[in-house]
Amino acid sequence: MHNDTIAAATDLSWQEQALCAQTGSDFFFPEPGSSVREAKQICGLCEMRSACLAYALSNDERFGVWGGLSEKERLGLRRAQQWDDA
Ligand code: SF4
Questions:
Q1: With 80 as the cut, is the pLDDT of residue 38 above it?
Q2: What is the pTM of this model?
Q3: Where in this chain does the record put each 4Fe-4S Wbl-type domain (predicted)?
């Protein structure tokens, strides 16, 4: 594991500036099949997006929108990274 990845996994200070902390978690953990468009719009305005996505990938977060990516999008990214590492 890369040092930056380890730091992302353990440093939670970015959460203090997370936009979703101000909006509540409902947008980010919608019912299955519901739209994540609103969550992605908020993530697009969030300065913590990179740290959030790094945290989600490092901690294998399976549910919800993190760093502007849905569950499926993060899974695709993880698979692409595994392919690159092979
Ligand atoms: S990128 Fe989205 S989910 Fe992550 S901290 Fe920002 S608003 Fe929250």
A1: yes
A2: 0.84
A3: 19-76
